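Hi everyone,

Forwarding the result from last night's run.
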Amino acid sequence: MTLVCTYEDRDSAMPGLELLARSLLDHAPDLKLLCFSPCVGASALATQIPNLTIESPDDIAGRGWSAKPDVLLRALELAPDVLWLDTDVIVIGDLDGLLASAPPGALLVGEEFHDLQPDGCANRARAWGLSVRRNLDRMVNSGSVRVTRVHRPLLERWRTLLADDRFTEAQRLPVAQRPSHLVGDQDVLAALLVSEFADVPLHYLRNGTDMLQHCGANGYHVVDRLKVLRGARPAFVHMLGRYKPWSFDKVPDFRRARADYFNLVCFELSPFHQAAARYATHLGRPGWLERRTRLARLLHRLGGGNVALRGMPLALLAWGAERIRGGPPPLSAAGKNQLP
């Protein structure tokens, strides 16, 4: 039986933890969620949601995303098969079936958006001074990672590099100023998977079929929308980036904060918004679960309420803008550089 695990040390992110736990209970009730968190709100949630257990993170190596490999190692002491999900993930489908269909013994990891990065992983490995032994066309997205006990050496090496002075010093810089191999935990994982651990079988969780990713207008890519319209049933949706739904207490002013405004519009049209809406009562019916912008209400009506169609016009515009400027900006650290 797979154990799902995560880590959260931000009080502001408790809505995300609750959505993850409640959606897991609805769609995969046999799976338990173990969260390492110092937050009082997390402990309170555990008294309300039967599949959620909270453990103290005091002896966990690292904080934030740097805690990921150590959390996975601790969880492997309790179960032979462990799935990490970020706290901005909502389960929306057959997660059990997705895990059961994966190749036995393979490392499962999300793929990063749609655009190929033929040398992305290899360049990160070279920047660490590692010898490249295989190539991967797609970057990894570590918002979802499934491991077994055979992957312990990889997790231990990942943990070591995340504690390396080069990485920790880079984390003090703004994201845009960090070297690509030091942006976040997934950049380090990518480097290891094409070098020292190139013999580890790897299976991507695919966008549009296995999962949905959303970040900005085309973070839910046009191609993924078409897959869903043709019948794909992803198991979960991942809300990437620095804009989190619960960050929007107020509607941003269109004239003064245009990027913030359009990010809110994109969220209100997103599959994450649709998935979270069913838990509005549990969350106290917060304002961010309402559709407050006129543009989102208009596109919602024009799309007939269909989550793949209603955001399609903005996704097409964003995709076209990317093609005109020669491709998207470099994406890493779970889409933290992505804008509408």
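Residues 14-27 form the longest helix (14 residues).

Cheers,
N.
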